[in-house]
Amino acid sequence: MEKTNERKRTFLLITIPVLILFFLFNTLPLLKGFVYSFTNFKGYGSYDWVGLRNYTDLFTDGRIGKSYLFTFKYAVVCTIIVNVLSLVLAFGLNSRIKAKSALRGVYFLPNVLGGLVVGYIFSFIFTYILPAAGSAMGSEFLSQNMLSNTKTAWAAIVAVGAWQSIAMNTIIYISGLQTVPEDVYEAGGLDGATGWKRFRHLTFPLILPFFTINMVLCMKNFLMVFDQIMALTKGGPAQSTESISYLIYQNGMNGGQFGFQSANAFLFFVVIVVISVFQLTVLGKKEEQL
Amino acid sequence: MNSKRKHSEKVNWPVTILLILGCITIFFPLYMAVMIALKQPSEMTNDIAGALSFPQHWSLGNFTEAMRVTDFWNSLGNSLLISAAAVILSILIHSLAGYAIGRNMKSSKFYNFVYLYIVSGMFVPFAILMMPLVKQTSQMGIGNRAGVILLYVVFYMPMNLLLYSGYLKNIPLALEEAARVDGASTWRTYWSIIFPIMKPMHATAAVLTVLGTWNDVMTPLVIMAGTGKNTLPLAQLTFQTQFGTNYNLAFASYLLALLPVLAFYLICQKQILNGVVNGAVK
């Protein structure tokens, strides 16, 4: 009896401080932000309650709308490109090739490098190397700086984001492909399943859990894009590449919109939770059906 | 049988060659950065050759100058301190929490609730907590390196708790019971038996926490603003706004910032790949 009590007490003595710590620096700021979202707080000085005005303003504010459009366009396009390319790459790296582990090591490299510095390096490529190559090839389109054109800047950010993220998704797909037993292919081969058919009906259903992980990871990370924006465009040109995170940072921290951006942050939080839960349930259902 | 073995040993050369060619996309940006960093501004002509050709005189002058301008050693020291402290504290605290919560969540509603409560924190991005946290940390007097370390311990708690309590399911209770019969306290049993057994999970948690904290810009940017202290990525941000147009110096500085993590990757590549896969798949 003495022993059981001692065990219970120790567990509580561990759990309660951890719980307090987590509440203090995760839940409490979330709640505080929620409270601030009903005020016109500038980040300093006094403030008044404004009720739901910040939330109604969110839907009429052009800059907010633009940042949501940009962030979603970026996240969706990036997620598709990254998943397609990393799946292809994973097949390649999982086939019978020479120097397998060295190649895998190289392709994972972008993942360990910091997004900000990678962004600066690519910024030079977009500003000088690509235009120089473009004009050498006589292409008018390529000889412009992609980053200074409102129509192309987002694509440049997609390229950098994808360059870094493919690494991670490829590794996850490889570990997925390794779980597919060789005799599944042999049995499928007897039934005439080859090429696309084999992928669609044999491989893909078997690696669906890994697809789910990658989709959820991708969407969440890309929706929060910040470093690349900071390094490549700082939200420009003409605010065409302002991500939601960047806007919250820029206007909430330095632009005197603490209250308004708190409302934006809370809406963003709800959006992320809804998307993640949606992805998990829809893809989870698919997994169950198989 | 013989023909089958032959088949499985056959190297797929077309794919190998394609993959080797594909490495150019990885190495090109890094090659370009090295070439620019080794050159003087006068060698940078406006064509591609100006950036990509080998320098006329090999000189590390840009690197020493960049180290001076960005206060490299102090930034490196701050980055090392923050990442190391965050990782050590995370391993100690999160594994303990994983133990206490993981061992009880099946039988107790309270622990099950605590588990779900903390793990659901994974859905809360930093951008949402940012503004209140800046206020809160400065009010508490921890708008500095200590605050950043503390925040990392909290931010990585959901993921690490998930990993540790998952790993614990495979460790039989009998191990602890034997120690208990011998009269050891729960606390001592944990440190002498459970903590060492969880070593593979410590490696995974350490890798994921290091990669996340080392490259993070946003947290130190807003929390440490005004302390005059930089982390390595932050130093690049300040450098860019001040000297961004001297590309030779800038690229030397960027490469210096990439060097520590490149070295870490070269040395611990296997552990890093394993850690990342373990973390994502579980």
From TrEMBL, chain A:
Transmembrane segments: 12-31, 74-94, 106-133, 153-174, 206-226, 263-283
Domain ABC transmembrane type-1 span(s) in chain numbering: 68-279
Key word Iron present: no
Subcellular location: Cell membrane
Gene3D superfamilies per record: MetI-like (1.10.3720.10)
SUPFAM superfamilies membership: MetI-like
Cell membrane found in the keyword field: yes
Keyword set, alphabetical order: Cell membrane, Membrane, Transmembrane, Transmembrane helix, Transport
GO biological process, one term: transmembrane transport
Coiled coil: none
Pfam families: BPD_transp_1
Membrane topology: Multi-pass membrane protein
GO cellular component: plasma membrane
Family note: Belongs to the binding-protein-dependent transport system permease family.
Protein name: Carbohydrate ABC transporter membrane protein 1, CUT1 family (TC 3.A.1.1.-)
Protein source organism: Lactonifactor longoviformis DSM 17459
Automatic annotation (TrEMBL), chain B:
Transmembrane segments: 12-38, 80-101, 113-134, 146-168, 189-214, 247-268
Cellular compartment(s): Cell membrane
Top-rank taxon: Bacteria
Keyword field: Cell membrane, Membrane, Transmembrane, Transmembrane helix, Transport
Pfam families on file: BPD_transp_1
Bilayer topology term: Multi-pass membrane protein
GO cellular component: plasma membrane
PROSITE patterns referenced in this protein's UniProt entry, alphabetically: ABC_TM1, PROKAR_LIPOPROTEIN
SUPFAM superfamilies referenced in this protein's UniProt entry, alphabetically: MetI-like
Domain ABC transmembrane type-1 as annotated: residue spans: 76-268
Gene Ontology biological-process entries: transmembrane transport
CDD domains membership: TM_PBP2
Family: Belongs to the binding-protein-dependent transport system permease family.
PANTHER family: ABC TRANSPORTER PERMEASE PROTEIN MG189-RELATED, ABC TRANSPORTER PERMEASE PROTEIN MG189-RELATED-RELATED
Descriptive protein name: Raffinose/stachyose/melibiose transport system permease protein
Organism of derivation: Lactonifactor longoviformis DSM 17459
